[in-house]
Specification:
Structural class: alpha/beta
Shape: globular
CATH topology: Rossmann fold
Largest sheet: 8 strands, mixed
Organism: Upupa epops (Eurasian hoopoe)
Number of strands: 8
Radius of gyration: 16 Å
Strand order of the largest sheet: 1-2-4-3-5-6-7-8
CATH class: Alpha Beta
Protein name: TEX30 protein
Pfam family, one: Abhydrolase_11
Distance between the termini: 33 Å
Number of helices: 6
Number of domains: 1
InterPro entries: AB_hydrolase_fold, KANL3/Tex30_Abhydrolase, NSL3/Tex30
Length: about 220
């Protein structure tokens, strides 16, 4: 279902992937610095989640300014919160690369402002860009260290923007419950020599879905 979400004096293009039965929780998903919501990995994940009963709203927000992207993400979350068509009790924020940085920024802002009313249940970071290539001395970990809700990282073990030891070091300092799933030999774009893109996406999709359901079950106990 295509929708246009108000954002300031413009609109953000977005698409709902709707499961057959109504879902009590959903995932808000966005792309990295390049591309848009039709990036193949996002389309694949949204379709997988919907086919397993989880509503997914993915959206496009162009722009390389992280504060702008976070503002757009916040507008999408507010839109979903007030939606009459899809009454969700909770959502998970998810993004690929820069999109996951924007999602982390939103969660930190809401918690610092005292606006975290349990609507946002967790964060999914696909290829989190922890540092620029070959610039491991400057880590983009500020938001991650403030987050308290559960976090899933899915990263390639050969990601040139997220060195394995560095992410594991950041994760060890995080206050939030966290899990890292490494895609063996994958780069930042999740390409692995000798494996098809579909095969890699199948692994990612299954990991994300399993973590989401486990997290929701824990919350309900």
């Amino acid at each position: 279902v295509k929708v246009k979400i108000p954002f300031g004096n413009k609109y953000l293009d977005a698409i709902f992937s709707v499961p057959e039965k109504s879902s009590t929780y959903g995932v808000v998903l966005t792309h990295g610095a390049g591309g848009d919501m039709n990036f193949p990995h996002l389309v694949s994940l949204a379709a997988y989640l919907a086919s397993h009963g989880v509503l997914c709203l993915r959206f496009t927000c162009k722009g390389l300014n992280i504060a702008y992207r976070a503002k757009a993400f916040k507008a999408v979350v507010e839109y979903l919160k007030l939606s009459e068509d899809y009454r969700l009790s909770r959502v998970f924020l998810a993004g690929r690369s820069m999109g996951s940085r924007a999602a982390a920024s939103v969660i930190r802002q809401l918690s610092q402002n005292g606006d975290d009313d349990d609507f946002i249940q967790g964060l999914v970071c696909l290829s989190y860009p922890l540092h620029r290539p070959k610039l491991q001395s400057k880590l983009r970990d500020d938001d991650l260290l403030f987050i308290r809700c559960p976090v899933l990282f899915v990263s390639g073990s050969a990601d040139e923007m997220c060195e394995k030891k560095l992410l594991e070091g950041v994760a060890s300092k995080m206050k939030a419950p966290k899990k890292i799933h490494w895609i063996d030999k994958a780069n930042h774009g999740m390409a692995v020599k000798g494996r098809t893109a579909d095969d890699v996406m199948e692994e990612i999709n299954a990991q994300v879905y399993t973590w989401l359901t486990d997290t929701v079950e824990l919350e309900q106990k």
